[in-house]
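Progress against Task 2.4 (sequence-to-structure conversion) is shown through the following example record, which the project officer requested during the mid-term review.
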Amino acid sequence: MSAEFNKVVLVTGGTRGIGFGAARVLLKAGWSVAVTGTSHQSIEQACRELDSLGRVHGVAFRVEDREAWAPALDEIEKTLGPITALMANAGVAIRNKAGQSIAIIDEEFDAAWQMTMDINVLGAALAFSHVARRIVARSSRGAFVAISSIAGRIGSKRASSQYTASKAALIGLVRQQAHELGARGIRVNAICPGMIRTDQTKGVQLTAGTGPEIALGRIGEPEEIGEVVNFLLSDKASYVNGAIVNVDGGWMPV
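Structure tokens generated for the chain above:
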């Protein structure tokens, strides 16, 4: 990455799963990393585990809270410097008490739909908006990556309507912002992970006929998503804008 590009990246939902794995990769690549989470306890634990890898700072707030964004970014930039890169990763896949996806005919559907859209879509849009304003105000340039899902492209038997719709909405957001923000010097791309080893995939079996069809025959690791994030945020991807990148081990033919 060129010297003039300030290497401070914000990773929303960076305390576990794909976000945490990506934060590890980005720190090792020389980025200063700010992570967000919903509790002070999760932030403190993540920062303790990441601290030895580089400059890291954590802020606890909810990404769908409009009023929380400005003070959170003020704190991050006071500590790490101006943010010029974003990984919009925070998201939820809400399940019922039995651990099953909430279907459109279930009583819990309305509440699950609203919460999913608030966190997965509004949260990402607010991240784009608030970080972009600061980059544009400085007449700087930047790069954003949103974490969508293969479900947002093709649906999934394992996913819910609200989750799939929210991830499809992220793809639409990225394609539009590639036009709007691209013209202002901010590249915007999305990654669609397939089956990745996180809390949500515990117990998934890749047995023929019962699990997902993955050409590589294994579940991916969060750090493998992180490597693609690092590339897309770097100057090595300087002409990549509006791309929707599958990182799925061959789940979906390209």
